[in-house]
Design a protein that fits this description.
The protein has a 3-stranded antiparallel beta sheet with strand order 1-2-3. The chain is mainly alpha-helical. The chain contains 6 helices and 3 strands; from the N terminus they run αααααβββα. The chain has helices spanning 10-21, 23-30, 34-40, 51-65, 69-78, 120-134, and strands spanning 94-99, 102-107, 116-117.
């Protein structure tokens, strides 16, 4: 039986990628086993997909099906309308970029130094705090 997944979760985006291009293709794209991909699609299992792997899966899904599940997730979390097609990068104020096994949050509207985080979750929490502060 399939566990229900929240549409604004990483597990849901991974499951969508599996549905679009298949677990075997997903595993080839990121260089991990098919079981690891299935584990990423289950919130109750340990482990988390990296941003680099999510971006690679987005590209593969876009090439095959014209859909970017992780971009859609980012839009949902940012309170934006999920894209029907491509979204210009300038619409996003904050961009989380992998750099040397860390995550840098780039503010597209500022020249201030970018904060660096050890995990994707910490970077997402910082972005959410900035949005709350601005609201």
């Amino acid at each position: 039986m399939t566990n229900p997944r929240n549409p604004d979760s990483v597990a849901f985006a991974v499951l969508e990628a599996i549905r679009l291009i298949g677990a075997e293709t997903c595993s080839k794209v990121i260089g991990r086993g098919a079981q690891t991909i299935r584990d990423y699609s289950d919130e109750t299992r340990p482990g988390n997909i990296t941003l680099e792997h999510a971006m690679a899966l987005d590209q593969a899904c876009h090439e095959k099906a014209g859909v970017r599940p992780f971009l859609r997730l980012a839009c949902l979390r940012a309170g934006l309308e999920p894209p029907a097609g491509e979204i210009p990068a300038h619409r996003f104020r904050y961009e989380i970029v992998p750099h040397r096994s860390r995550f840098v949050v780039v503010d597209n509207r500022s020249d201030d130094p970018a904060p660096v985080f050890q995990t994707m979750r910490a970077a997402e929490d910082w972005v959410a705090a900035q949005r709350e502060r601005a609201a």
